[in-house]
Amino acid sequence: MNADYIKLIATNKKAKFNYQIDKEYEAGIVLVGSEVKSMREGRVSFQDAYADIRNGELFLRQLHISPYEYAYNANHEALRTRKLLLHRYEIKKLYARMKERGYSLVPLKIYFKNDKIKVLLGLGKGKKQYDKRESIKQKDVARDMDRIKKKYSD
């Protein structure tokens, strides 16, 4: 039995609203012990979080992991830059795509996968205001259709 155990820690709900995601990548993340314990409690915020490439390495910036309240003196800084683990060829591919105008690398989800913490990154372009309005309209129409289906199926 080779099934993956996945437990969701946090989801970036604004990412798919603000960005048109083209491709998704799964990356490992380098953390200290108190960060892992805070993540187990779900104390993570994606507010303004993004990933970028410096010197051929991938980093996650502005991800807020609250300090672990029971850590003695070895607590972590909440907004520190964290290294992401990805194959070199994938990083080179991402770098080439990110050099194109308008592409960004945004964290979508953080989850446990077989006792390792993974970050799902989305490569996409930022949506314009009219694209966001169109997304809202589509969600409203889908919700109305579901309501009508439910009403007439009973």
Describe this structure in words.
This protein is α+β, with helices and mostly antiparallel strands. The chain has a single domain (6-127), classed as Beta Barrel (Small Protein B, Chain: A), CATH 2.40.280. 32% of the residues lie in helices and 37% in strands. It contains four helices and nine strands, in the order βαβαβββββαββα. It has helices at residues 15-18, 33-40, 88-99, 129-153; strands at residues 6-11, 19-29, 44-45, 50-54, 57-61, 64-65, 82-85, 103-113, 116-126. A seven-stranded antiparallel β-sheet has the order 1-8-9-2-7-5-4. The longest helix is centred in the last third of the chain and has 25 residues, at 129-153. The N and C termini lie far apart (41 Å). The model has no long low-confidence stretch (mean pLDDT 83).
Taking strands numbered 1, 2, ... along the chain, how are they ordered across the largest sheet? 1-8-9-2-7-5-4
Examine the secondary-structure arrangement and name the CATH architecture: Beta Barrel
Give the total of beta strands: 9
Helix content bin:
25-40%
Low-confidence residue ranges: none
Largest sheet: 7 strands, antiparallel
> Proportion of β residues?
35-45%
